[in-house]
Amino acid sequence: MSLRGIFEFVIKIDRFRNVDLFHQGLYHLRFRIYHEVNGEVYLAHPYSIISPSQKKSKNAHNLIPAGTVDAVSAFQTKSFLIRYQDEEVQINDIAHFRTEIDIQDNYLFQSFIFEVELMWTDLSNIGGLELWKYQMNQIESKAEFKSVSTRKFRLNNSYTGIHEYAPILFDELHYCMVCTSIHSVLLDFKFRSKPLLSVEDESASTLTYIDPSEKDKDKNGSEKRLTKNSENRKKYKNLTEFFFARESQADMTGLEVDDKDINAIFQDFIQPLITSYERLHAMHSRFIIEGLSEQQRVNIAASAEVEPFINFKADLAKPRSSQDSSWIIDTSASTNADSLISSEKAVINKDESSSDEEKEDVLLKENSVKEGESEEEVIDSQKSKQMVEENEEEKVQKRENNNEVIESSTLDELNDASVQEGQYCSKFPFRDPEELAKAIQYEMNNLAANIFQLWHKLVMVLQMEKTELNAILKESFKEKMRESWGESIFRNIIQTSDYSLQTDKDIGQLHKHMAKVRRNNVYYLSMEPLKVEDINLIPDIEQHPIVFEDVYLKSDPKDGNQANAESLIPNHESFKKDYDGIHLFILVHGFQGNPFDMRLIKNNISTLYPDSVFMCASSNEGLTDDDIHNQGLRLSEEVQGYIAEWCPTGNLAKLSFIGHSMGGLVIRSALPHLQEYSDKMHLYMTLSSPHLGYMFNSGKLVNAGLWVLKKWKKSQSLQQLMMTDEKDPKDTFLFKASKLEGLTWFKH
Question: What pTM was estimated for this model as a whole?
């Protein structure tokens, strides 16, 4: 028996894209949200579904309608048939989840887990995929789905409002992408007489409630152990006791409430609801103003227009007397969020009074700046110290120049900002505990009613089709990811007169030391987490990758000409599609490889550039011991044939090459035979390619392995890499390849 925070989540599933699934079949997605306290799991319950198609159809993308799975408190999308690569399914399902959390220390910062399962069946029970049209009535009853892949996300700071784009990518054996958006709100506080049940409690209990103060009995009549949470949970009879009861006082008789108690209640419960309302209002206004067309705004003017902003802080500053009946709760017509659920349509469609006030359209951006400790105390090397400090200054300067409103991310910041205009205690001149509890409960109910109404108006906007909402959230997601990962990337600009000169022999050890220092830095450890974190993608801080990028710029010390460093730094605006036609990526495997070696690289690029075309070269599979020149000739013929088949009538706009290991040299050897496409060349990228061969390799083990392969397999390509194919080094393949044309054609 205690006060609980009521949270709601809305999951909108926009579309599903099969990038490279291994199996054809019937698929759907299953979603769950839960939180953990002391090792026990508490599930959020899906209570409402909005789906454009709730009935079966003969459409292969809607064979089983969306629904809930009550046994596991999950929502599942409609089931759709996947038969082709790059097949895309429009889902447009929306699910509401509601959950409660017990009020305890730091309860507002309770993280939630968002779990997504990819469910699949091959329809073998009805005779296979080819018979699905003839077995429509049996699909739902006979299809046996199983979970083939799972992704988990951590939802942080849900009380401030989550409104994030969340792309879901499953594992490499089930490579597909789901475009979703996640929204959350702190809706209300409610006093509950029954204990909050965990998954363990729910599975062990019946529908009949047993007072937790009594000893539970199992079927045999013996005592059943209460869970550790229920053992430690203090019981309160009513809200008055919860707010004002003291351990030193047995009952409430003669209890004196001081101003400190009232202000503490404001900071713990009223202020979070105000913050929830303000953030929700800002996002709702932005969605309508930026995400909808003028005609769409006209169409929803009666039901989801931009809400007049209610200044609850000013309202809370108005004093009330004990005789003022405006705060007395009318139990016959409660205005709290629970009562509004039963009359949802009436609330959402209620005409709102218009306002000429300026509409709030600023999205508050979470960006907490914390000063880190000096690198000078821990880094001995002068080079490493300079590089880290320069990057730190750039990042901090970038944040200081940001003109967006920075939202508070800690409860202390919220508290400091909330009590500046006046103490909450001055609102109530009376100090009777029961009267105060009723007044405070009224304030919470009033806030909750406004939040609930605004929350469902935002959901109405999310239901609309052909809006810019996804684009707004997606762009915000990209920017946040760039900033988050950018904290772990250090760029060092090095001016040199000769690219072959090595600047630092111990660069590897230097970077290793710098990475260790960075991971232990206070600034790095105290960075605010993303609101939606992919648990499978974000590693622990001890394993978080630190990237060092050394950019070498050639300069002439005689005339003092310096290359422009800024020209080599990519601008994310340049990645937007600014051309008409097809962008063809050619991916080339390495020594003893095959086209499947490049599959994962292709899939990852495909998620960023879904309109591009990919060719994983296969012409040299099983022939990598051959002359590299001959391999290049075969590759060029394969590329020409692919372009003729997939890019007819001169529709090719860009041509990019990505090579792994020896594949990078094969590409260079093929370029002279592709001169007709020189004006289309866009990107040349190689991964671990031995452009200088293995002639000067100092590893004895590597040398021994190469010698065995060269002698045993009579590998001509390995002889060329070791520059032993000719006596005169100038006659070797690598030397001649350095003179071949082609690399200067590429823009990148």
Answer: 0.77
Please name the residue that has the structure tokens 């007072």.
211
Q: Please name the residues in contact with 439: beta carbons below 8 A apart, sequence gap of 6 or more.
A: 320, 327, 428
pLDDT in tens, 263-298: 888 888 888 999 999 999 999 989 888 888 888 877
User: Between helices 663-670 and 628-646, what is the axis angle to 10°?
Assistant: 70
Q: Which long-range contacts (CB under 8 A, 24 or more apart) does 258-264 make?
A: 258/431, 259/423, 259/425, 260/425, 262/424, 262/425, 262/428, 262/436, 263/419, 263/423, 263/424, 263/425
The mean pLDDT of 23-47, rounded to a whole number, is 92
Cα-to-chain-centroid distance, residue 22: 25
Residue 738 and residue 669 in contact, taking contact as beta carbons nearer than 8 Å: no
Q: Choose among 262, 320, 186: nearest CA to 437.
A: 262
Residue ranges of the alpha helices (H) in 292-419?
Answer: 294-299, 312-316, 337-341, 344-348, 382-400, 411-418
In this prediction, residues 171-193 reach a mean pLDDT of 92
Confidence tier at 470 by pLDDT (50, 70, 90)? confident
26 has pLDDT over 70 = yes
DSSP state of 529: P
- DSSP type of residue 568: G
Number of Cβ atoms within 10 Å of the Cβ of 93: 23
Is residue 392 over pLDDT 60? no
Please, what sign has the CA dihedral across residues 383, 386, 390, 393?
Answer: positive
How far apart CA 165 and CA 91 sit, in angstroms, is: 16
Give 539's pLDDT tier (boundaries 50, 70, 90): confident
The one-letter amino acid code at 512 reads: K
Nearest to 15 by CA among 113, 86, 64: 86
- Average pLDDT (365-369) is 33
Does 479 or 240 have the greater pLDDT score?
Answer: 479
State how far the Cα of 405 lies from the Cα of 367, in Å rounded to an integer. 9
Q: 401 and 208 in contact (C-beta within 8 Å)?
A: no
Distance CA 97, CA 9 (A): 5
Cβ distance 655 to 680 under 8 Å? Answer: yes
Please, are residues 281 and 450 in contact by the beta-carbon 8 Å criterion? Answer: no
Q: First and final CA of the chain: distance in angstroms?
A: 64
- Mean pLDDT estimate for the chain: 76
Quick check: 111 and 36 in contact, CB under 8 A? Answer: no
Partners of 554 in the β-ladder: 496
Phi-psi region of 157 (alpha: psi -120 to 50; beta: other; left: phi over 0): left
Taking the CA of residue 105 as centre, how many other CA atoms within 13 Å lie in the half-sphere pointing to its CB?
0
d(C-alpha 553, C-alpha 605), whole Å: 28
| Amino acid at site 280 | L
**Beta bridge pairs of residue 98:** 8, 45
Residue 462 has pLDDT above 60, yes or no: yes
Bridge partners (DSSP) of residue 547 are: 489
**Three-state secondary structure along 256-318?**
CCCHHHHHHHHHHHHHHHHHHHHHHHHHHHHHHHHHCCHHHHHHCCCCCCCCCCCCHHHHHCC
- Closest by CA position to 743, among listed 690, 693, 691, 688: 691
- CA 308 from centre of chain: 31
**Which residues touch 267 (CB under 8 Å, ≥6 apart)?**
411, 414, 415, 418, 419
Rounded Cα distance, 455 and 283, in Å: 10
Query: Nearest-CA neighbor of 317 among 410, 421, 412?
Result: 421
d(Cα 709, Cα 688) in Å, to the nearest integer?
19
Between CA 10 and CA 84 the distance in angstroms is 30
Rounded Cα–Cα distance for residues 526 and 519 (Å): 11
